[in-house]
Give the backbone structure.
Amino acid sequence: MQRPDLNPIAVSMRALSKRYATGHQALKHVDLEIRRGEIFALLGPNGAGKTTLISIVCGIVTPSGGGVTVDGMDIVRDWRATRSCIGLVPQELTTDAFETVWNTVRFSRGLFGKAPDPAHLETVLRDLSLWDKRDARLMTLSGGMKRRLMIAKALSHEPSILFLDEPTAGVDVELRREMWGLVRRLRERGVTIILTTHYIEEAEEMADRVGVIHEGELIVVEDKRTLMKKLGKRVLRIELAQPLPALPPALAGWPLDLTDGGRRLEYQMGASGDNGDSVGALLAGLATSGVAVRDVESHKTSLEEIFVGLVSRRAAPEAAR
Ligand SMILES: Nc1ncnc2c1ncn2[C@@H]1O[C@H](COP(=O)(O)OP(=O)(O)OP(=O)(O)O)[C@@H](O)[C@H]1O
Ligand SMILES: [Mg+2]
């Protein structure tokens, strides 16, 4: 449930730029608004600028240009207040090997000036299956446990906005599913979530909206479903029993490609004028033309294929230079 007194925009970035001391321009005029309560996935290849963007919002990196507000508050002027709204799970694991799990989350909460709340910390540790490990020193934890601890640490001060920078890198499939479940539960409680990932199925599974960043530029921001509908395609592949030398004249008006030496027909579904019954009509057309079908398979473009298409389209003029 959204509270009416809350700002509908959780994070607003305006003309955000970053040039590092090396001269490298890691972000170029990024404008982006994160809506309260959404899961926003930031996708981009290595070095695209994802961690830089997150680090600026969290006050770890100073922008060279532009500004950020969190809950309507400026991150520079209202540093303390904005930072305490945010939980950050950084890409790099940083832990004190000799500290215990319990002390780590307790200390982290204290850093944000929040009053001690053992019950909250217990809930967080239980949610992340770390309660049994509360007295364990961090050096005795497995890699996956350390990752979960980083999330527990980020949640210790009850942030309303959570940044997860590659939360499931190097995490096994089961733990990844568990973490997805946790992220969904957090969203149900009203937490706004911004995650970066290289696992595009993660964005496909989780995100409400997707942003694609490439060489410091935000090239697409779109509702995930719209993006997949707009750029995704559905193709029907029809394997023929006998190779065809050419399309039968009766099928001349159809958007069909004859491939694989005449052994396969590819039909782009969802083209304009397609009212949903075209597959049946096409198969009937093939039958009346005496074309025997061996197999039929439909294939939907994944977010991954859309992403690779977007980034390589951008990279192509670059390579030609
Ligand atoms: N402290 C720094 N000094 C100089 N250049 C930096 C610094 N931090 C990052 N960069 C450069 O800025 C660019 C963006 O880096 P960033 O870490 O934001 O990328 P990323 O999208 O998070 O990549 P990855 O997917 O590998 O985590 C890269 O070219 C990187 O080398
Ligand atoms: Mg990164």
User: Anything to note?
Assistant: The mean pLDDT is 88.
